[in-house]
Structure formats: structure tokens, C-alpha cells
Specification:
The protein is of the alpha/beta class. It has 11 helices and 10 strands. The protein has one domain: Aldolase class I (TIM Barrel), CATH 3.20.20. Strands 1, 2, 3, 4, 5, 6, 7, 8, 9 and 10 form a 10-stranded parallel beta sheet that branches. The mean pLDDT is 95. The structure holds S-adenosylmethionine, 6-(5-methyl-2-OXO-imidazolidin-4-yl)-hexanoic acid and iron/sulfur cluster. Iron/sulfur cluster (SF4) binds next to loops.
């Protein structure tokens, strides 16, 4: 089937709402046309600047205005970040993602350090990804020159629901940064979160927006909300794992060539649910005991799952 960029919401709903076994079967067919069997990329995530963020994203433990117990820290040194990157590589990571709790990047010493971190990670032979908030066109260019493989900037939910989740920045701010990333020749990593109280149409609206970009994002992280005490979403019920499977399968069918990343929320999933997500087209996970601030399945549990299921860590593509 030809890759499309003109999905309507009804078409996306028709895919999403198919009988589950048909949906997973179709997603797996699309998956195998584009990717090697059993290959799952291991990515490592590090919070290089934690907490104290001025934004009000309703899901986020790092927003200064919520009392979540996450303390604001200073940016890590380049050396500490590269030590973490070396350890991640030894443990099998082929992509190293660095996150900062910033609203936007400011030029100066801290950004210069991030550029050094990016170059250092690339020298280790891994893909380098950053998520630092909003970027100008010039900052995107400098990240590209430093060797950045991909920039993560999530749209999180549908355009209609966006204002219910975040008020301190707009949907069009997000689109603008994504355009700077694309224009600089950096791969786009863009996805969202399910389980924030959104409707199924909101989930499909997000996936439709991503799939209708002129170029599909190369990487689509699908997060299940980690409900953190102190955030406005603390009391959201955990998302049903089969709803996560549906969102992943729909992403795979709409964006056949993207890396679909089963991101936050894996700790609540059984091994079987995780494998069903992979059958539905997820081909990457974050491994390591913590994500940015919340916990993740243990390294040992993940390695045991890879071993038992015969999953092969994927080689880097860039
Ligand atoms: N400050 C930057 C930004 O927001 O663009 C980068 C860091 S931010 C923590 C990266 C992404 O993590 C968010 O866009 C959101 O999709 C995801 N995220 C944050 N908190 C989460 C949570 N509690 N559960 C699931 N995903 C979460
Ligand atoms: C993404 O979509 N998920 C990752 C990565 N991009 C940066 C972050 C998940 C964060 C989960 C909450 C936390 O640990 O603070
Ligand atoms: Fe800040 Fe990013 Fe968290 Fe929003 S998601 S509060 S921008 S760290």
C-alpha cells in the first residue's frame, strides 16, 4: 500500500476501531514489509536538566508549579552525561536521548554544553536525540552541525484537546519548532500520550496529524500516562493495555516506516501486553531503571524478556 498523507478522521477511526485481531494482524503485515523480524531498538534516556520547568503541562512531574517531589537541579556536566552514554552503550543502547526541563533553549553556556554532549554521543557511535523545548531555526542548525540525529518534540494530543492539557504554550508553537527541526535536516521524533482523559477521536486526531505531515516523523513515541502525585493528572485511571495496543497498531499502519516507540508506562504492562504492543508494530523501548524522573522496568527484566521472546536489539540506522 502506498504511504499516505491525506487521512481523514473517519478513516483513522475505521483503522483504530477494527476488531483487535484484524488490527494487530494488519499492523504486523505493514511492520514486516518495512522492518526485520524480531528487531527492537534499545534506547537510553537521561534527564540532563531536571525539574523547575515554568510550563504547565498537566501530566508532567517536572513542572515547577506542581508539588511532585521532583527538585530543580542544575544541568549535568558534559563529562557526567558522556559517562552515562558510555554505560548505556555497553548495556546495548544504540540511541541516547537527552531531556531538559526547559520551556525553550537559550543561547549561551548551557546550550554550548548540550552541543558538546551531542558531538560526544555521536563519537561513541550511537544515535543522539535531544528534547529541550522550543528551538529557533538557528539553534536547530547548530544542533545539526553538532551531529544531532533526531529532536523529540511531542504534540501529545489532538489540536482540539491541546488547550485542556497545556496553557503556557500553543499547538502552533509546537508546530513551529518541528518545522525548524525538519528544515535543519534533523530527524523528527514526535508522538504523544494516551490515558490523560482524552477521547478516542483525540488519539486518532493526534495520529492523523502526525501522518498527514508532508514527511512522516521518523520516530513516534507512544507514551501511556505515568500518573504522578501532585500533577493535575494524578488521579487518572491507568490506561487499558489493549487501548495502548490499538494506538500503536494505528500508528504503525499510518506511518509504516517510522520507528514506533513504546515509551513511558511500560512498568504497568505485563510481558504479554508488551509483546502484543510489539506485535502491533512497536519496535523500540527505553531501557534502564528510570525514564526522566519516573521508574521503568528493570534492566534484568527487560533482558530476560528479550531473551525469552527472541527479540534482537536493532542496529542504529543513522
Ligand atoms: N521540556 C521538553 C518538552 O516538553 O518538549 C522536553 C522534556 S518532556 C518531559 C518530554 C515528553 O515526555 C513530553 O512531551 C511528554 O510527552 C512526555 N511525558 C512527560 N511526562 C510524562 C508522564 N507523566 N507520562 C507520560 N509521558 C510523559
Ligand atoms: C517521550 O515521548 N517519552 C520520553 C521521551 N520522549 C523524552 C519521556 C517520558 C517521560 C516520562 C515521565 C518521567 O519519567 O518524568
Ligand atoms: Fe516542562 Fe517539558 Fe514537563 Fe512541559 S513536559 S512541564 S515543557 S519539562
Amino acid at each position: 500500500m502506498k504511504t499516505r498523507h491525506d487521512w481523514t478522521i473517519d478513516e483513522v477511526r475505521a483503522v483504530h476501531d477494527m476488531p483487535l485481531l484484524d488490527l494487530v494482524h494488519r499492523a504486523q503485515q505493514v511492520h514486516r514489509e518495512h522492518f526485520g523480524d524480531n528487531a527492537v531498538q534499545l534506547c537510553s534516556l537521561l534527564s540532563i536538566k531536571t525539574g523547575g520547568c515554568p510550563e504547565d503541562c498537566g501530566y508532567c512531574p517536572q513542572a515547577a508549579r506542581y508539588h511532585t517531589g521532583v527538585k530543580a537541579e542544575r544541568i549535568m556536566s558534559v563529562e557526567t552525561v558522556l559517562e552515562n552514554a558510555r554505560a548505556a552503550r555497553s548495556a546495548g543502547a544504540t540511541r541516547f536521548c537527552m531531556g531538559a526541563a526547559w520551556r525553550k533553549v537559550k543561547d549561551g553556556r548551557q546550550f554550548d554544553s548540550v552541543l558538546e554532549m551531542v558531538t560526544g554521543v555521536r563519537e561513541l557511535g550511537m544515535e543522539a536525540c535531544c528534547t529541550l523545548g522550543m528551538l529557533t531555526a538557528d539553534q536547530a542548525k547548530r544542533l545539526k552541525e553538532a551531529g544531532l540525529t533526531a529532536y523529540n518534540h511531542n504534540l501529545d494530543t489532538s489540536p482540539e484537546n491541546y488547550g485542556n492539557i497545556i496553557s503556557t504554550r500553543t499547538w502552533s508553537d509546537r508546530i513551529e519548532t518541528l518545522q525548524h527541526v525538519r528544515d535543519a535536516g534533523i530527524q523528527v521524533c514526535c508522538g504523544g500520550i494516551i490515558g490523560m482523559g482524552e477521547s478516542i477521536d483525540d488519539r486518532c486526531g493526534l495520529l492523523m496529524t502526525l501522518a498527514n505531515q508532508a514527511v512522516h516523523p521518523e520516530s513516534v513515541p507512544i507514551n501511556a500516562l505515568v500518573a504522578v502525585e501532585g500533577t493535575p493528572m494524578a488521579d487518572q485511571p491507568p490506561v487499558d493495555s489493549l487501548e495502548l495496543v490499538r494506538a500503536i497498531a494505528t500508528a504503525r499502519i499510518l506511518m509504516p516506516e517510522a520507528m514506533v516507540r513504546l515509551s513511558a508506562g511500560r512498568e504497568r504492562l505485563s510481558r504479554e501486553a508488551q509483546l502484543l504492543c510489539m506485535l502491533a508494530g512497536a519496535n523500540s523501548v527505553f531501557f534502564g531503571d528510570t525514564l526522566l524522573t519516573t521508574s521503568n522496568p528493570s534492566y534484568r527484566a527487560d533482558m530476560a524478556l528479550f531473551e525469552e521472546a527472541g527479540l534482537q536489539p536493532l542496529e542504529p540506522r543513522a
